[in-house]
Amino acid sequence: MPEGLEEEVPDSNRREMSAGRRSVDPETSDCAGDQFPEQPYTSFTKSQLRGLRLLLGFSAITSPLTATIYFPLLPLLRTQFHVSAQAINLTLTIYIIFQAVSPVLFGPLSDTYGRRPVLLFTLAIYLISNIGLAANEHNYAALPGCPGTAEPGS
């Protein structure tokens, strides 16, 4: 046999030798099916899992929902605040800039402090800034800042 070449291993032996583990043939195995749990293990209760799914679903939809809702409102905002279209478009530009910069800022923070605290912090920022947007009826000066602060949460 030439140097560097190994002997060909039959397929039946290759399965048993792969990754240094013993493979189990389901046809010849005497293992009972109840050896493995039917449900994956988790330390969360069903209500905690439901709440976690709702929180993660909410956080996943915030950015697309915010951008989709905000864009059609631009003409209405122009008449509400009595400003030019360029001034209202500036708020959208600020939102997009914050959308681009937020991962750069909050990515390293989530690596340092963990994903959960950073996610909860950014969702709190999102909630507070959206309450500020909803409460703002006549002050254009507050308008450009709120979409920008809403973005890190989405």
From TrEMBL:
Region (Disordered): 1-39
Pfam families assigned to the protein according to its UniProt record, in alphabetical order: MFS_1
Membrane topology: Multi-pass membrane protein
Official protein name in the record: Quinidine resistance protein-like protein
UniProt xrefs under InterPro entries: MFS, MFS_dom, MFS_trans_sf
GO MF annotation list: transmembrane transporter activity
Major localization class: membrane
